[in-house]
Write a structure and sequence with these properties.
25% of the residues lie in helices and 28% in strands. By secondary structure, it is of the alpha+beta class. It has a single domain, classed as Gcn5-related N-acetyltransferase (GNAT) (Aminopeptidase, 3-Layer(aba) Sandwich). Strand 3 and strand 4 form a beta hairpin.
Length: 207
């Protein structure tokens, strides 16, 4: 994704009509069924983040993230929206990082339908998120994912250690190289082929 062409900002009241025309599929409405989603409350609370793209001086909305700040210091991610058929993992992760940077929550939670594999993969790949619990409502199973600062730090530490090159071996003395023993000459014949003389007789006074 070209960072220069994209921008993140909070939604304004004048964005509502463009949002409804540009973004139809959302986390809670993956089929893109007709609905009259109201963004006014989220915009009024400052809890609607937009991902926009600039092209030839014109701004287009590529996605949104709606959340709710809780009194306990945590946030609940209510919905994601995107253009196109499938959610763009890069766009979603960028909005998530910006949301966590802005709000610095003690915990962030989001509900995902169990059979929505693209969303399951996105949260599984995002640092700090863990599957917390499952719930059954409206005849569907939903997985609740939870993010915490401790899990985020742990995941980033693991990623950094995996990217770090292996440490070089410290210099030190090389182990001695074992050399094969030299061959021993055959007993009885010295080098040169001449017979070996017998043992020398002791020298002493003649009788």
């Amino acid at each position: 994704m070209d960072a220069a062409a994209y921008d993140l900002r909070l939604a304004r009241p004048g964005d509502v009509d463009v949002l409804r025309k540009s973004v139809r599929r959302t986390l809670n409405n993956p089929e893109g069924k007709t609905q009259r989603k109201s963004f006014a409350d989220a915009i009024g609370r400052g809890e609607l983040l937009l991902l926009t793209r600039s092209e030839r001086g014109q701004e287009a909305i590529e996605g949104f993230l709606e959340w709710h700040s809780r009194v306990d210091g945590g946030i609940t991610i209510r919905d994601f929206g995107w253009t196109g058929e499938e959610p763009n993992a890069g766009h979603v992760k960028r909005m998530l990082r910006e949301l966590l940077r802005m709000t610095r929550p003690s915990i962030a939670t989001v509900k995902v339908e169990a059979d929505q594999q693209p969303w399951t993969q996105i949260f599984a790949e995002t640092a700090g998120f863990r599957p917390a619990e499952r719930e059954y409502s409206q005849r569907k199973w939903r997985q609740i994912w939870a993010w915490t600062p401790a899990n985020d730090a742990l995941d980033r530490q693991r990623q950094a250690s995996q990217r770090a090159p292996a440490a070089p071996r410290p210099p030190g003395p090389r182990p001695p190289v074992a050399r094969p023993p030299a061959p021993r000459p055959p007993i009885g014949r010295p080098f040169g082929g001449r017979p070996s003389p017998g043992p020398r007789r002791p020298v002493g006074p003649r009788r």
